[in-house]
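Note to self: keep these together.
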Amino acid sequence: MHPELSDHSILAAPGASSPAVITLFLCGDVMTGRGIDQVLPHPCAPEIYESVMRNAAGYVQLAEEVNGPIPRPVDYPYIWGDSLEVLAKLQPDLRIINLETSVTTSNDFWPGKGINYRMHPDNIGCLTAARIDCCTLANNHVLDWGHDGLVETLEVLQQAAIASAGAGLDQQEAQTPASLIVPGKGRLLVFAGGAGTSGVPADWAAGLARPGVNVLPDFNGQTMWRIKTAVSAVREPGDVMLFSIHWGDNWGYHIPAAERRLAHQLIDEAGVDVVYGHSSHHVKGIEVYRDRLILYGCGDFLNDYEGISGYEQFRGDLSLMYFPAFDASSGRLMRLDMVPMQIRRFQTVRAGMSDSEWLAATLNREGKQFGTRVESAGDGMLSLRWD
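Structure:
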């Protein structure tokens, strides 16, 4: 074990899968701030600094106008809804999310950004309720409440025994992966980077003595060299490598050539086994490249956007629980099962049949260019097939 990984390490509970297989739970962006924070037991002060909304409670009202009353306060498991039952049934070895909010009481909102998400640190129970093992933080909201807000976020996650990746007290820490041990199976290293194409400000980049994010300024050779150097410094034989990347526009299914090229380079040159992409507010196509999984966009898994109109054709209320399984010795993708979900009243619920069929049709349409498709696996689940 490398000593530089110790601050990010966490021991995972044994899973129910074969000793030769590591199974993960991945999902789209998890945003537990703003309106969601207001219905949790310990909300932050509701003042926000947006042009269209000055009080976070306004997002609660919008959601209730669309889908009905939300109890206040909710208990911590509430926001996960039906997904807790799915997790209990499938028992993945590790549970990893992209946490798209600060966890802080800081009032030092980032000026001029326009949208600022935060959750009160005393509400961290909403993450431990789902037994989250690791939060990736390289995204465009983790510094919404300043450097002090990021520092507090890191402290709160560490105190809750939740590993993190993609942000840190300095550049070295922001680039250091989380090390997740699965007893009897091996180690998963989780790297995370945030791209400017998803709205991560360049001045959020961690410095030699400045807290910040592992910002990927572009997708050129210098960025790839930096990633390869970070990976090679810590990789050991038998490690499975995951690279979480926040990239691209909020809306639209098109996969830019630069994103696909970077995903392939991460696999070919850096030895990454799964590219965990997010930022889009809806699910995007899936690729399997050289037996390695590329999720170009996982959608939003949890947010307070109910009642906000626009882009309805993309069905941003629908999402997927992704359960990839990897050969523990080689990192090769063995299978990918998915469970369709929907956001309603600030919690995730199982999607209905017609919504599940819509998601399947979307994945099939967008996966055609990659040679991937999905099939029903029973009990409302979908399984990926690839050429």
